[in-house]
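TASK: fixed-backbone design
INPUT:
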């Protein structure tokens, strides 16, 4: 294992998010490699950590003032052993190859866990949609797709949303894809309901996170009723995580954006959540407005340079981080445990730092790792692909039931894999092992390609 880490560090010394994810992965799969020598003989791990294809491209576009901008576009097609590459697009100024590679790597195992036939990929751009007009976002999406279209397709690579890419962006991307290909196909997911989208796809990631948390609690006969939850983020995943917590009887105390967080001791109820959805999804405003509208709640600006986020210091039972990677430091983890949190279920991808995960493990916190807990989004993307191929659409109930069954199956699979390999109860190891074995066996079956 050491030689693999040494190699990737030497090849790409700046890709530290990618190194982080590989280190975490390698630390959990050793027992599998010991039992299955063919994986080592066939260099399965070395093959898995090298993307099948990496596409980097220029995205030139013009703003409303006529000024020309150039952004960097990315698509990492990581692994197609079990299906077409599948995974979201992220538009955020911090996007770089390290971040896209870590996300693409996680996506491979996540998609494998969903039970659906999807390989893994991820893409995006270092474009910042904040403060941009609809026209600017449209022109950016069109310029981005003017290159990406040649690499994707319903049986090749199927992108979707992620940070900064929601319904609006998928619409513009799809429109350009359709025009360039002269074909109406399901080459993107997260589409609008009237043009090939699936019911429940917007809700799916957040709902899935809470279904997963409910499964974890259910093992000890508990549920979410009355549980105080700290949620971070206020985008797609956070909003529907909060919504499902409320539906299952829990209480949501916090939400955040990149400027700060809100704390509402009385709980963010469904009426208040509607206010947030309108604020974030339609007016594209900042969360601080919440405290002006609901003066009994507080808004706290957060200095990103701080080594901890006070959001994680409030007394609570559960935490669902749903903003971004590495948002929970070791110190945050200590604050969470000191505040009484017993369950952490990850909505964002890799929100817990290695130090945080270590702390949760030492304190026997129920820890739902992102690749298992947030797989509901891509699972319903898989269901959207199925509906598109059949030219049919399923009802809310059908899709929601399938989502719940998939989350239950992922939960069961993680626990079974963990038990089989001597790490009973370790969801992180279980998720890595179960995801890994399925991909590795498919790669072995398909030969050296
Ligand atoms: P959105 O763009 O809808 O929302 C992102 C939220 O996180 C916003 O509140 C944003 O605040 C905040 N945020 C983003 N970057 C940072 C940062 N660097 N520091 C602090 N806050 C930040 O994205 P999603 O809700 O879709 O994604 C959230 C997380 O969930 C990501 O990790 C994503 O990879 C993951 N995910 C998403 C899935 C999906 O289906 N959409 C599926 C599975 C995982 P601000 O508005 O200030 O930028
Ligand atoms: O991280 C993720 O799983 C996503 N952003 C969703 C991917 C998808 O293809 O629906």
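OUTPUT:
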């Amino acid at each position: 294992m050491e030689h693999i880490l040494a190699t990737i560090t030497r090849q790409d010394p700046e890709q530290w998010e990618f190194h982080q994810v590989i280190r975490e992965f390698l630390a959990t799969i050793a027992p599998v490699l010991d039992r299955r020598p063919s994986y080592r003989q066939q260099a399965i791990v070395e093959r898995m950590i090298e993307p099948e294809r990496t596409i980097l491209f220029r995205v030139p576009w013009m703003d409303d003032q006529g000024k020309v901008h150039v952004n960097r576009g990315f698509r990492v097609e990581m692994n197609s052993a079990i299906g077409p590459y599948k995974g979201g697009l992220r538009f955020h100024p911090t996007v770089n190859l390290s971040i896209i590679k870590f996300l693409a790597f996680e996506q491979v195992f996540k998609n494998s866990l969903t039970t659906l036939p999807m390989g893994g990929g991820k893409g995006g751009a270092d474009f910042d949609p904040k403060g941009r007009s609809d026209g600017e976002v449209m022109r950016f999406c069109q310029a981005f797709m003017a290159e990406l279209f040649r690499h994707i397709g319903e049986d090749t690579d199927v992108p979707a949303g992620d940070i900064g890419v929601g319904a609006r962006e998928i619409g513009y991307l799809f429109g350009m894809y359709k025009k360039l290909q002269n074909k109406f196909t399901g080459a993107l997911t997260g589409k609008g309901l009237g043009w090939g989208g699936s019911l429940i796809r917007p809700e799916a990631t957040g709902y899935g996170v809470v279904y997963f948390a409910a499964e974890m609690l259910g093992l000890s006969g508990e549920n979410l009723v009355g549980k105080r939850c700290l949620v971070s983020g206020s985008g797609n995943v956070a909003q529907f995580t909060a919504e499902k917590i409320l539906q299952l009887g829990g209480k949501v105390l916090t939400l955040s954006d990149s400027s700060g967080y809100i704390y509402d001791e009385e709980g963010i109820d469904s009426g208040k959540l509607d206010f947030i959805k309108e604020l974030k999804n339609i007016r594209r405003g900042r969360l601080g407005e919440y405290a002006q509208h609901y003066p009994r709640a507080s808004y706290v600006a957060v200095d990103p340079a701080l080594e901890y986020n006070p959001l994680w210091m409030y007394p609570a039972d559960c935490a669902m981080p749903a903003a971004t990677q590495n948002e929970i430091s070791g110190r945050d983890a200590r604050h969470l445990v000191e505040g009484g949190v017993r369950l952490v279920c990850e909505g964002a991808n890799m929100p817990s730092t290695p130090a945080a995960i270590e702390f949760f493990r030492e304190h026997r916190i129920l820890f739902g790792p992102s690749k298992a807990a947030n797989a509901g989004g891509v699972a319903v993307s898989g269901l959207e692909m199925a509906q598109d191929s059949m030219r049919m659409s399923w009802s809310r109930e059908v899709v929601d039931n399938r989502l719940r069954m998939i989350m239950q199956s992922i939960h069961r699979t993680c626990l079974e894999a963990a038990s089989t390999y001597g790490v009973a109860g370790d969801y992180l190891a279980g998720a890595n092992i179960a995801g890994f074995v399925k991909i590795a066996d498919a790669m072995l079956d398909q030969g050296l390609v």
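COMMENT: Residues 111 and 378 are 7 Å apart (CA to CA).
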